[in-house]
């Protein structure tokens, strides 16, 4: 479905850049809803999932500020997310050796187990963009990188 149909656009967009921007925003929300649906049975939010993946990828304890820098959602309240994950037993917190004001966070064994079980959603995650070929998905990623000034 074209973006004009999806949002019931009655007037033309100002230009191709305006259309693309609206399309990216609409598609972002659509993708997020799909991912939320995949994560819902596990009782975890997209942001919490992202924090756990960042922690696993770090391979060592890191501060909340480092976590925030690596998150997909830069507006997320990292301290609050870490607290919720800590309450669920999915992360560990320790005082930073170098600066007692900071807290180092690492993924717990329960967090590792949850991420391992979340591998089951990979087919559903891949299915989100199944209307694209693998080559088209690569081109899309390259175009999005280019739009952000990367390349």
Description:
- The structure is a single chain.
- The chain has 151 residues and is mainly alpha-helical.
- It has a domain of 104 residues: Winged helix-like DNA-binding domain superfamily/Winged helix DNA-binding domain (Arc Repressor Mutant, subunit A).
- Helix content is 58%, strand content 8%.
- The protein has a three-stranded antiparallel beta sheet.
- Strand 2 and strand 3 form a beta hairpin.
- The mean pLDDT is 91.
Quick tags:
151 residues, elongated, Arc Repressor Mutant, subunit A, three-stranded antiparallel sheet, mainly alpha, 58% helix, single chain, 3 strands
Number of strands: 3
Shape: elongated
Cα gyration radius (Å): 19 Å
Q: Structural class of the secondary elements? A: mainly alpha
**H/E element order:** HHHEHHEEHHH
Number of helices: 8
Q: What is the averaged pLDDT score?
A: 91
Architecture blueprint of SSEs:
Blueprint: H1 3-6, H2 16-39, H3 46-58, E1 62-63, H4 64-70, H5 78-87, E2 91-95, E3 103-107, H6 109-117, H7 122-127, H8 134-147
Antiparallel strand pairs: 1-3, 2-3
How would you summarize this macromolecular structure in one to three sentences?
The protein is mainly alpha-helical and 151 residues long. The chain is built from 8 helices and 3 strands, in the order H-H-H-E-H-H-E-E-H-H-H.
């Amino acid at each position: 479905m074209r973006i004009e149909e999806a949002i019931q656009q009655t007037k033309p967009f100002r230009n191709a850049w305006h259309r693309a921007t609206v399309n990216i925003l609409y598609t972002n929300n659509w993708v997020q809803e799909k991912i939320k649906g995949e994560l819902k049975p596990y009782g975890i939010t997209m942001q919490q999932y992202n924090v756990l993946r960042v922690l696993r990828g770090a391979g060592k304890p890191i501060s909340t500020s480092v976590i925030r820098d690596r998150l997909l959602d830069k507006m997320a309240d990292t301290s609050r997310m870490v607290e919720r994950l800590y309450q669920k037993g999915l992360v560990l917190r320790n005082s930073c050796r170098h600066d007692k004001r900071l807290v180092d966070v690492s993924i717990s064994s329960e967090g590792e187990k949850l991420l391992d079980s979340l591998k089951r959603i990979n087919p559903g995650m891949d299915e989100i963009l199944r209307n694209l070929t693998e080559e088209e998905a690569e081109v899309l990623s390259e175009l999005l990188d280019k739009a952000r000034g990367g390349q």
